[in-house]
Amino acid sequence: MFLTIVLRAKPKTKNVLVMCESIASGHRLNSVRERTGDKLEFIRFDPTIQQESIYREIKKLKGVKVSTAEQRMKSKFSPTSYLMEDL
User: Fold this and answer.
1) What are the φ and ψ backbone dihedral angles of 7, each rounded to 5 degrees?
2) Organism's domain of life (predicted)?
3) For 29-65, b where at least 16 C-beta lie within 10 A, e where not — what string?
4) How far apart are CA 7 and CA 30, in angstroms?
5) What does DSSP assign to residue 78?
């Protein structure tokens, strides 16, 4: 195996964007969960039937990098970085 192939490999992200579907009406929405976690199943308002419904994960879409408030504060290009310099 060539060294360039190993160096070009992307590391897997910690979180995954998944598509969830309502079992009542088929309405879909996207949500983020941990890669190692179980499949999502939750109750949320369904706009097509105007009631709360159970949503189940149907497929993974892609890996996503979720930033926390602490990471945004540490970023030097964040919109609030100029406020932190004055302190």
Assistant:
1) -70, -25
2) Eukaryota
3) eeeebeeeeeeeeeeeebeeeeeebebebeeeeeeee
4) 32
5) S
Which amino acid belongs to residue 14?
K
Q: Which helix (H) or strand (E) holds 72?
A: helix 69-74
Count of CB atoms within 10 A of residue 25's CB?
A: 14
Residue 82 has φ and ψ, to the nearest 5°, of -70, -25
Q: How far is CA 33 from the centre of its chain?
A: 6
Q: What is the pLDDT of residues 34-66, one digit of tens each?
A: 999 899 999 999 999 999 999 999 999 998 887
pTM of the complete model? 0.65
Q: Residue 84 in 3-state DSSP?
A: helix
Pick from 46, 36, 67, 42: nearest CA to 55: 42
